[in-house]
Amino acid sequence: METSLSYSSRPMSASVLMINGEGMLLSVMGQDYFVSYNRVPWLRDARVSSALNVRMTGPDAIGWPDLDVELEIESLRHPERYPLVMKRSPLDVVEG
After folding, report:
1. pLDDT tens across 10-67, in order?
2. Which helix (H) or strand (E) holds 50?
């Protein structure tokens, strides 16, 4: 599925080209990027229909509204500058 927006007469689009067991191949503004599930684990167990629903959320970001996941396009271009860091919150722990 492809969605597009236009900011200052510059067309912008995002689409999923391929999904496999390791990640997904995205086309964002004419550039292709492979997004590994190791880098974006929130996409690993997503339903295909939710994974395909990728959108431009602004001039510098894409998102999956069904999954509440958003990525800066710069993190696709330079993943080494964006290490995956998960912070735990007291609300994450449910004691029974």
Report:
1. 457 999 999 999 999 999 999 999 999 988 888 999 999 999 999 999 999 999 999 9
2. helix 48-52
C-alpha 55/C-alpha 12 separation (Å) is 10
Q: What is the pTM for the complete model shown? A: 0.73
Angle at 43 between CA 38 and CA 1, to 5 degrees: 130
Q: Are 29 and 13 in contact, with CB atoms under 8 Å apart?
A: yes
**Torsions phi, psi for 36 (to 5 deg):** -75, 145
* Residue spans per domain, the chain: 2-92
Query: Looking up tokens 């939710």, which residue turns up?
Result: 50
Q: 24 with 43: CB under 8 angstroms?
A: yes
Residues, the chain, total? Answer: 96
Which two tokens mark 1? Answer: 């599925």
DSSP state of 57: E
